[in-house]
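Incident review: delayed structure delivery

Summary: a single-chain prediction request sat in the queue longer than the usual turnaround. Root cause was a stuck worker, restarted by the on-call engineer. No data loss occurred. The affected request and its eventual output are reproduced below so the record is complete for anyone auditing the incident later.

Affected input:
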Amino acid sequence: MTDTYEPRLRSEMRIARGALDRLREDLFHDAFAFRPLPPLAADHRLVRLLPRRAARYTRWFPHAALAAFTGLVMLATFARESGLFGMVEALLVGVPMLMTLFRPVGAWWLSAGALLFAGTLGGAFDRSPATLFCHLFVMMVVTLRTRPRVAAEMWLLTGAAGVFIGVFLQAFRPYYYSFSSEMFQMMLLSGVLLFAVAAVRGLRETKQQVAVQVAVTEVERSRRTVLEERTTIARELHDVVAHHMSVVAIQAEAAPYRVQDTPPELAAAFQTIRENAVAALTELRRVLGVVRSENPDAFADPEAPQPTLEALPGLIENVRSAGLSVEHVTTGAVRPLPQGVELSAYRIVQEALSNVLRHAPGAEARVEVSYVLGGLGLRVVNGAPNRLAKPSPGAGHGVLGMRERVAMLSGGMTAEATDEGGYEVAVFLPVAPGEQTSAGEAAA
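Output delivered after worker restart:
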């Protein structure tokens, strides 16, 4: 039995210590800090209904209404209790009410002090309920300006103060019985009102959060629609423009063979037409990749050249510095390839290594780049992770993006799990001999 009692006691002690820490943070730490009540928002319904000249002053309507109400309460208190006592009680009522505009928690402390002062000296509650009303009003305003937890803490401390006065000081003041009775009534009434105020405030905040969420959802829906339209435009451009440019390149290449004794000038012109068509196809594929992406290379220098396979060692070094063990192997005769092929190959390796970092922490990776006849082969494979991967919001589009890049170049790609518990991405990007030669001549 002792074995179960001690852990339960420690748990209860932790709960009590946490409650005391929250109470100290809410009501004691920086209790008199300056927290002014902000004016109404420019899009508030009351501000929008009035003319522009009057709207500037309407934003301060809550401040003016509270100050006017405080003035009326002070005048009524002074008229009921004239003389020095009426002036003191008017100040005890008015100062905390005005302070709720600038220092809400400090205003509650002043109001609680005024409540204790009026209850212990002079029998104030027998003659005027203004101090009780003031304290209730201050608690309601503070509840509107702070979290609901503060309302519960204020209510409990007020009740504790009433119990202290009613129990421990009753022997010295015969009218404390009346005070205790009024305190009980005020605690019951204030509990109901504070709950209602907190519920209204919670409902208002919930409506604001729902409005914000609806706005965010609308933005995401618009963004998704834009991306879908971009993908549709990219597909149509590829189907139409790429087809015609391919026909131009083929006809320009075949035209010299259809005419006997073709003049050298005409053959050179057809060769220039074909080279320009091939270069246009390469640039078209690159531009379509940009159109399909919402914000490609957002952190890259806009004037910097697009990365190629020559920048692959730097990428692998950056990944190694992030903690991933990567082996880099290049086979075949290294040669310049079309810009679209090299850019896509670089991006595919980049995305594959990012997926390893994100989904296979602690695994080892291997990057193979193979220059083969007729194209370029890529293989990125990783082993099994040695720990659980952290949640990655927004993941799931990397493989889709790689497939889109490969499809634009009419290549092939496989992405699947390995028997060892890892993952493998294998890609082949075809390169026609004419494109290869053209890229080599451009590099030369």
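Verification: The first helix runs from residue 2 to 28.
Action items: add queue-age alerting; document worker restart procedure.
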